[in-house]
Amino acid sequence: MNGAAAPEPTEAPAPSPQVPLDWRFSQVFGERGAGEDVQDVDIISAIEFNKSGHHLATGDRGGRVVLFERTDAKDHVSRKDAEKADYSISRHPEFRYKTEFQSHEPEFDYLKSLEIEEKINKIKWCQETNGASFLLSTNDKTIKFWKVQEKKVKKICEMNMNPSNAPANGSPAGSTMCGSSARTPNGGILKPGGLPLLRLPVV
After folding, report:
1. Which end of the chain is more exposed for a tag (fewer CB within 10 A), N or C?
2. What is the pLDDT of residue 179?
3. What's residue 131's pLDDT?
4. Is the dihedral of CA 143, 44, 83, 50 positive or negative?
5. What percent of the chain lies above the pLDDT cut of 70?
6. Burial of 49 (C-beta count, 10 Å sphere; 0-12/13-18/19+)
7. Residues 139-176: pLDDT tens digits?
8. Exposed (0-12), middle (13-18) or buried (19+): which is 139, by Cβ within 10 Å?
């Protein structure tokens, strides 16, 4: 009322049309011959990245969970830092097969007279602890909690008993007496009238 002109309403700018996403193959896993039909149990039904984006889990209709890990992770910063940076990634991330396991089996619910298929409906990664990965997988009935961890497998490379030094007539070949006990060529100790004491295997 003081004579000031009221601002005229302006029209909001029209939203720009969204460009459709362009999906392309960057990496293919598995082998399938030309003309070979895809089996129903091999169709992926669930997929999930972990929080860092360095691991990928897929579940299929056959109840299997397959894990992949990123091979070029050391060339890039963490996903959180990459999201803050305003630049595009020059190349696609690369993954390699890590492991797989059978998560669910088909079962029958006798109370409801219903067949429960093994198809994985959802996968969820949990917090990593002590170098181990944890994830949840579920079908229509059961949720399962999995721990995935790399372990070193020890292999026995040497044993105490050597076939070439097998005892003949109750006495090991080439045994030497020292005091009240004897030593066998492969390092065992022979008690009087007994068998050699076994050493622990070397791994």
Report:
1. N
2. 46
3. 85
4. positive
5. 57
6. middle
7. 999 999 999 988 887 777 666 555 555 454 444 444 44
8. buried
Q: pTM (2 decimals)?
A: 0.58
Query: Is residue 13 one of the residues assigned to a domain?
Result: no
Identify whether the C-beta of residue 103 lies closer than 8 Å to the C-beta of residue 63.
Answer: yes
Cα atoms in the 13 Å half-sphere on the side-chain side of 6: 3
Task: Give the closest residue to 161 by CA, choosing from 116, 120, 200, 191.
Answer: 200
Would 24 be classed as within a structural domain? no
- Split at pLDDT 50, 70, 90, the class of 28 is confident
Q: How confident is the model at residue 22 (pLDDT cuts 50, 70, 90)?
A: confident
Residue 52 lies in a domain: yes
Whole-number Å distance between alpha carbons of 160 and 162: 6
Q: Is 135 contained in some domain?
A: yes
Q: Burial-class residue 70 by CB neighbours within 10 Å (0-12, 13-18, 19+).
A: buried
Helix H or strand E encompassing 79 = helix 79-84
The Cα 31–Cα 18 span in angstroms is: 36
Range of the domain at 60: 40-75+93-149
User: What is the C-alpha separation between 175 and 181, in angstroms, rounded?
Assistant: 10
- Residue-wise pLDDT for 70-97, tens only, equals 987 555 555 666 655 554 556 678 889 9
